[in-house]
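testing teh design pipeline on a random one, pls ignore if ur not involved
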């Protein structure tokens, strides 16, 4: 067992339908993230993990465009083909950058070990993940975070495969899920233990209060693909006292968690994860909620389905 396992807090499953405690709510507001151990019971966690493994072993490679999902270090270049841009109302499979042999271009891993993520409409198209998304507990959390019309706009399983699971550089989720003013909150659920060894998240505590959302990830106008542009609208959500500060000084705190833990992540919070060089995968499920009353324009890479984004309540 990896040494850092000992530092993971024990799971503490209890009835969380009541929402967050005042201390948890304050901690989220101060830190920009909140770790809630035992939010998902062991059997649900195990069945979502099994569902994920079943999907990975049964999807078809034959008609797949072999799209890789990457975010560059400078957030400048990003995979942006049609398979990605039209995935908002589908369940699609995105390959890990390092799953290919560079000389032959062929997969160097079995397909179930080659996928970086599955997205972005599991919360509507997969009953098990839908049940794990639209819950009274999550609705109560959204109420406590002052959402008026919380909408689930995307969901993903992130695999962080053994040996090749890619690094995710520091970023703010509201860059990718921009509303005016920003409102995104990530609900991140560990399906397996996440440790320093297999590339757990780490967080720049409090950075959501001092780091504006300066750029947005959008569809290129008049061309294929995506790009980052300046965010011209509000750069902080309503209701926060913000102080701008350069982000070079940020110190990152490791978020090692056990399977079944829910982590709430403020859309302005800087967070990252390192490459998984270990022999153990780090499967997680995450979905994002935005304020449905805020402006969501047609430039966003992710466009709503005809019926609109899914209501959390
Ligand atoms: Fe993120």
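output:
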């Amino acid at each position: 067992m990896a040494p850092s396992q000992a530092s993971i807090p024990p799971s503490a499953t209890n009835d969380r339908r009541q929402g967050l405690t005042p201390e948890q709510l304050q901690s989220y507001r101060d830190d920009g993230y909140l770790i809630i151990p035992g939010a998902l019971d062991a059997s649900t966690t195990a069945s979502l993990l099994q569902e994920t493994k079943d999907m990975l072993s049964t999807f078809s490679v034959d008609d797949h465009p072999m799209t890789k999902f990457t975010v560059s270090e400078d957030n400048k270049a990003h995979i942006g083909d049609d398979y990605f841009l039209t995935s908002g109302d589908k369940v699609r499979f995105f390959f890990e950058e390092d799953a290919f042999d560079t000389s032959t271009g062929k997969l160097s891993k079995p397909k179930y070990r080659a996928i970086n993520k599955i997205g972005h409409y599991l919360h509507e198209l997969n009953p098990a993940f839908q049940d794990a998304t639209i819950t009274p507990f999550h609705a109560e959390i959204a109420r406590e975070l002052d959402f008026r019309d919380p909408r689930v706009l995307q969901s993903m399983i992130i695999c962080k495969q053994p040996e090749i699971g890619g690094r995710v550089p520091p970023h703010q989720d509201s860059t990718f899920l921009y509303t005016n003013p920003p409102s995104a909150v990530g609900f991140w659920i560990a399906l397996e233990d996440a440790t320093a060894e297999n590339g757990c998240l780490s967080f720049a505590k409090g950075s959501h209060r001092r780091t504006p959302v300066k750029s947005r990830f959008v569809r290129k106008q008049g061309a294929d693909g995506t790009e980052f542009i300046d965010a011209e609208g509000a750069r902080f959500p309503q209701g926060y006292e913000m102080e701008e500060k350069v982000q070079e000084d940020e110190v990152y705190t490791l978020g090692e968690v056990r399977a079944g833990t829910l982590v709430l992540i403020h859309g302005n919070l800087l967070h990252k994860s390192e490459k998984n060089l270990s022999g153990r995968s780090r499967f997680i499920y995450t979905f994002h909620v935005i304020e449905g009353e805020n402006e969501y324009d047609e430039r966003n890479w992710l466009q709503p389905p005809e019926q609109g984004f899914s209501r959390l309540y």
